[in-house]
Amino acid sequence: MSKITIQRLNPMHAEAYRAMMLEAYEHHPDAFLSSTSERAVLPLSWWQKRLDDNPEANEMVFGVLDEQGRLCGVAGLSVGAREKEAHKATLFGMYVPSACRGRGIGAHLVQAVLDEARDRQVLLVQLTVTRGNAAAERLYAAQGFQVFGVEPMGLRLGEHFWDKVHMWRALQSPSNKEFWGEK
Prior knowledge:
globular, 5 helices, seven-stranded mixed β-sheet
C-alpha cells in the first residue's frame, strides 16, 4: 500500500470534503440518510462548520490523504453532547471512493475514530449500516463491532425501503459494579 496520512479535517478541507460527500450521496444513496439534493444546496460555510477543529467540538471528521494530498476517504465521530450520553459516540459518514478501495483505508479510518473516542473517555461507539452492504458490515465486524438490532424501513428512497443495521463496540468497561450485576 502506498503511503497515506490520516488526520482530523479542518475548515480548509471543506471543498474536498463537500465534493467527496456529494459523490457518496450520489453513488450510494441507500447508504446515507442525507441526499445529494439536500446537501448540495448548503453553503460552503456549513461544510466548514462541520469540520470545526476546536479540540472541544463534539463532532469531528477524519480523512485519509494520499501522497499528493488528495482526500481518499472520510469518517466522522459524534460524541454525545449531553451529560447523560457523553459516554457514547457515533461513527458517521464513512466513505471511501471506489478508486481508493482495497488499500485498507476503511480500517485505518475506523481505527482513527476509535482512537479519538478512547482519548475522549468514550465507553462505546455505535453506527448504522444499510442491510445488504456486506463489505461495510464485514469491515465493522472485523473492527470489533457487533449487531444489536435492525431498524426496519430505516431509509426510504422513493418507493423503496432499506433496513438499517445498528452496531456497537465497547471501548472500555463501565466502572460501576451495578452495571455488572455486582453489589
